[in-house]
Specification:
There is one protein chain. By secondary structure, this protein is of the alpha+beta class. It folds into 2 domains: 197 residues, Gcn5-related N-acetyltransferase (GNAT) (Aminopeptidase, 3-Layer(aba) Sandwich), CATH 3.40.630; 149 residues, Gcn5-related N-acetyltransferase (GNAT) (Aminopeptidase, 3-Layer(aba) Sandwich). Helix content is 39%, strand content 26%. Strands 1, 2, 3, 4, 5, 6, 7, 8, 9, 10, 11, 12 and 13 form a 13-stranded mixed sheet that branches. A hairpin with a 2-residue loop joins strand 9 and strand 10. Helix 2 packs antiparallel against helix 9, helix 3 packs across helix 4 and helix 7 packs antiparallel against helix 9. The longest helix is centred in the C-terminal third of the chain and has 27 residues. The protein is globular and about 75 Å long. The termini are far apart. InterPro entries: Acyl_CoA_acyltransferase, BioF2-like_GNAT_dom.
Length: 376
């Protein structure tokens, strides 16, 4: 089999129409969905979020066929350890890190990606892979290849986050997974909110409304605690531009899923989801904190539940939430296990020796910390 892999620089519009079309073809046939690395979001991130650190786009090919794509950066440290390493690129607004790998070519694609990193003089230490699905096709193929190549592989961290995957309709799901007391409280809040004015739930369907919806979302998110802490998308021009560009590209590709609840024509809760394949990723949620007594975040998630379960094209949705999230964990019953791996890199001569030492040092420091924690 003719295998090749090479890094694509992001300068010089390397992700122009031709390159984007190649990535779109790969994304459409991906073994594992990842909206964050599909061209809609990836190209928007490269345009607006990739100034520092430099991003290398590693492609794995079978002849002229693209079978794998992994965005990679070099990190100056690994957690608290002063060990530089290569890592899959997960910017502040990326919540899943599985590379795009063509279905049925998982082992071959990983073989090409890792061979590229083994040969790269710029790739120090080891490969730190973040945000993978422990039960996904990427993790399974990677484990098998590491065994085949006698390549070191270490699980660094794992946690469970909420996921929506059910054949139940929205009402049945709501009754099955949410406590009766909470359901009663939500009905009461809906009635109280309706007493305040005209309440309307809407999904974005008109391309002409997209700029207005994006502006409303950015303003709503910035009005709350994220704005006060400087983490809202609107707090940085690049982040806001990324959001607008990603939403526009995804809408044009039929992959944007955006909802809002209005009170007397004013947005009080909004959320944006990005679809890929048969699934979707819950990207961001924003709501009016001054109306917190009505739990607008829960109300928009209830609207989202109806929208997702009522759409036969969406089989599942990843919450992209932190572990033990108090709100979404109480509404969605399924869980997705997210893992991080440390993968040894090979090479030749001193490079191989240095990488082996870095991998061993990281493993040893981790084992020592675990022992010390167990003794405390």
């Amino acid at each position: 089999m003719d295998m090749a892999s090479h890094p694509v620089p992001i300068s010089g519009r390397a992700h122009g129409p031709a390159q984007r079309a190649r990535w779109a073809s790969l994304a459409n046939d991906a073994a594992e969905a990842n909206a964050f690395y599909a061209p809609d979001m990836l190209c928007a991130a490269l345009d607006h979020l990739a100034q520092v650190p430099a991003v290398r786009l590693i492609e794995s090919c079978n002849g002229s066929d693209l079978i794998g794509l992994l965005p990679v950066v070099v990190l100056p440290s690994h957690g608290r350890l002063p060990l530089p390493c290569a890592a899959n690129w997960m910017h502040d607004h990326c919540f899943f890190g599985a590379p795009l790998i063509r279905k049925g070519q998982e082992m071959a694609a990983w073989r090409g990606l890792l061979a590229q990193l083994d040969a790269a003089e710029w790739a120090p230490g080891f490969l730190h892979l973040q945000g993978l699905d422990a039960a996904g096709a990427n993790a399974a193929a990677l484990e098998a290849l590491c065994v085949e190549q006698r390549r070191g592989r270490r699980e660094v961290h794992r946690y469970d986050r909420a996921m929506l995957r059910s054949e139940l309709d929205a009402e049945r799901y709501w009754e099955t997974h949410v406590r009766a007391k909470k359901r009663k409280e939500v009905r009461r809040l809906q009635k109280r909110l309706a007493d305040m004015g005209a309440v309307e739930q809407r999904m974005l369907t008109d391309r002409a409304e997209l700029p207005h919806w994006c502006a409303d979302f950015l303003a709503l998110e910035a009005s709350g605690w994220k704005g006060r802490e400087g983490t809202a998308l609107a707090c940085r021009a690049g982040d806001a531009a990324f959001f607008r560009a990603a939403c526009a590209a995804a809408f044009d590709a039929g992959r944007l899923h955006m909802l809002r609840i209005d009170l007397d024509g004013r947005a009080i809760a909004m959320l944006a989801n990005f679809r890929h394949g048969s699934g979707a990723f819950s990207f961001k949620i924003a709501f009016d904190e001054e109306l917190g007594r009505f739990s607008p975040g829960v109300l928009i998630e209830l609207a989202n539940l109806h929208a997702v379960q009522g759409d036969p094209a969406i089989e599942w949705m990843d919450s992209c939430a932190a572990a033990d999230h108090p709100m979404i964990d109480s509404l969605w019953g399924e869980r997705r296990t997210i893992v991080q791996y440390r993968i040894a890199l090979h090479g030749r001569g001193l490079a191989r020796l240095g990488r082996g030492l870095a991998f061993a040092l990281a493993n040893g420091a981790e084992a020592l910390a675990a022992r010390m924690k167990g003794q405390s």
